[in-house]
Automatic annotation (TrEMBL), chains A, B:
This is LacI family DNA-binding transcriptional regulator. It comes from Agromyces allii. SMART domains: HTH_LACI. PANTHER family: LACI-RELATED TRANSCRIPTIONAL REPRESSOR, LACTOSE OPERON REPRESSOR. GO terms for molecular function: DNA binding. SUPFAM superfamilies: lambda repressor-like DNA-binding domains (SSF47413), Periplasmic binding protein-like I (SSF53822). Transmembrane segments: none annotated. Residues 8-62 form the HTH lacI-type domain. The keyword Cell wall biogenesis/degradation does not apply. Keywords: DNA-binding, Transcription, Transcription regulation. It comes from the Bacteria.
Length: 338, 338
DNA sequence: CATCTTTGTTTCATCGATGAAATGCCACGA
DNA sequence: TCGTGGCATTTCATCGATGAAACAAAGATG
């Protein structure tokens, strides 16, 4: 029987149950020494009044808010919503709610996140920067409970959970080379961002593999795509298909680009993988249901989410050893697009 | 110059600036009567100490937390992450952060959301229920600042923002009929959920259109899919393609199912739309980049997000008129899959 | 020049839950 | 019988920001 829960406090509940607010608190936080009979009485009163804990009050006293912030570029990118999904699930184990902030990959907004301007007072921050990079370490000050995701952007004293971008990109490219492809293009380069961003690291992996195999990488085959949306993949692929010397394979820096690229290929009647092979990166759920199913890099998203949340939890619980840098295992998932 | 922001309070900032905590508060909340010179001094002190407002304390005093909760079944479904993306953007205008809760479409979890057990004390709730339905109105008690999305599930006194599910589904089906299709199947039915859930309403629209046209709807052409994930769409389509009397069109109850279905068609060498036409529902970004591009219902997601947030804001700001029920405009987006 | 406004700042109490410590009660052993 | 210790509950102060109202100083008004 739940009543109007206007402004019911622990004191109100206590009054009804014949105890003090403090005892109500004890009951609700499972303090060991509460008589079972009292516990029942209090819980009944809680129910009757429709009492809900005021998290602001608790937060003020305890210094914990019970929520963490996840800051990512854009929920519209499959990889990020998959990541968000998993971070939320993992956070539940620690009793945390998750506030999601979209930075739009804008430097200004990313700075706001670090400074706290655009962030609720939360117990911690899991942050995948995009526009920030080395040299921005000074903006980290005051963010002790922070885990950086994705790129090893900062040298400062921060925990990092990263995928092995370069190695995985090299692996993907090597696979294409091993299949006999020679004119291998890349989609997703972005000269505007830092040299340790995902875009740059994946490009490096691609270049390494090509160089090791003695294959050429003419500039027109390395297509810039700033946004990594479906649309950008399609545009890039259309461009590649129009080249005089058409590539026989494309390595896309994420699956979203790859799916856009597959679309462009199909629209132009170009057969994949016969005429052009396509490899992606991220292994998002949609990759498996693309046509043809997308060969891609599995970066260990689940592992990333879990590690990030656990690492943050450890920090919040007072772990003070030096910041760690964790690389997840990645692997190539071979499907039919390459 | 940002320093260790351990536990800096307004009082500390005030001490440095030579004013009271109250004046600091005035500065930070843009109170009109503060001398410019004082304002500068305070802001400098804020910067110097790396002060960050304690939102718990503010929340305790003002009764506002500055965040709202968005409860949806699963961020893994394209429609929902698109919705989340937009809700976050709209909420920014009102200065709200958004906490996202995934219910997994589980009744138990949905009840926890309403009761507040699984929800931070937030300024309001935008909730798309799935397993709850008529008869569960009693669980609404105590949730005054609430906007229900999607299905007109409750008769109780709550604001609703809904799409015209039945009408839109009828429209989609009528379009297929108008293109000369007669053996039209449906994917996404779910007998387990309430009669006013999206699944049921869309099925009704489909059935209405078929009946009006005098077309048969044998049970084997109405495929159950409880989850509405890519996988379910693929499985359902595979099933349909194996029928003795193969359908010449499919209406999928969402785009994710439709994209899964397209995949199954392609894997079986069945040409779309020549051999079988496919229509989806939701017009998610991926629909446009499916192959062939997906004909689908545009349900006005942007409008839904905006209305929901604005309606909630109005309630929070004390609007007290009777709850409203808003239906968004939907339309058919014709592409090449049908 | 005394009074009334306006402007800028301060004082004080308060929001609701919890940490620390005190209290009352009962059981138990010597 | 008295002390000792454990259990259950209470008392009290406190976290940090803000609403209400008081206050001081500077201008406006007659």
């Amino acid at each position: 029987m739940t009543g109007k829960s206007a402004n019911v406090t622990m004191a109100d509940v206590g009054a009804l149950a014949g105890v003090t607010a403090r005892t109500v608190s004890n009951v609700l936080s499972n303090h060991p020494s509460v008589r079972p009979e009292t516990r029942d009485r209090v819980l009944r009163a809680v129910d009757q009044l429709g009492y809900r804990m005021n998290t602001s009050a608790r937060g003020l006293k305890t210094g914990r808010t019970g929520s963490i912030t996840l800051a990512i570029p854009d929920l519209g990118i499959d990889y990020f919503n998959e990541l968000a999904r998993r971070v939320i699930v993992e956070s539940e184990r620690h009793g945390w709610s998750v506030v999601i902030q979209q930075t739009g990959a804008r430097r200004e907004t990313e700075l706001d996140i670090l400074s706290g301007a655009r962030r609720q007072h939360s117990d911690g921050l899991i942050f995948q920067p995009h526009a920030l990079g080395p040299g921005d370490e000074k903006h980290l000050t005051g963010n002790d409970r922070l885990v950086i995701l994705g790129d090893r952007i900062f040298n400062g004293p921060v925990d990092h959970v990263a995928m092995a971008n370069t190695d995985a990109a090299r692996l993907a490219t090597q696979y294409l080379i091993g299949r006999g492809r020679t004119r291998i293009a890349a989609i997703g380069s972005n000269p505007g961002v830092s040299t340790i961003s995902a875009a740059s690291l994946r490009l490096q992996g691609y270049l390494q593999a090509m160089q090791e195999a003695g294959l050429p990488t003419p500039p027109e085959r390395i297509v810039v795509a700033e946004e990594w949306h479906l649309r950008d993949g399609a545009v890039a692929m259309t461009h590649l298909l129009r080249l005089d010397e058409r590539p026989d394979a494309v390595f896309c820096f994420n699956d979203t680009l790859a799916i856009g690229a597959l679309h462009a290929a199909a629209m132009n009647g170009v057969r994949v993988p016969d005429e052009i092979a396509v490899v992606g990166f991220d292994n998002v759920p949609a990759a498996q249901y693309a046509f043809p199913p997308l060969t891609t890099i599995e970066p260990g998203t689940e592992q990333i989410a879990k590690m990030a949340v656990d690492l943050l939890a450890a920090r919040v619980n007072g772990r003070t050893d030096p910041p760690r840098e964790i690389f997840t295992d990645s692997s190539l998932v071979v499907r039919r697009s390459a």
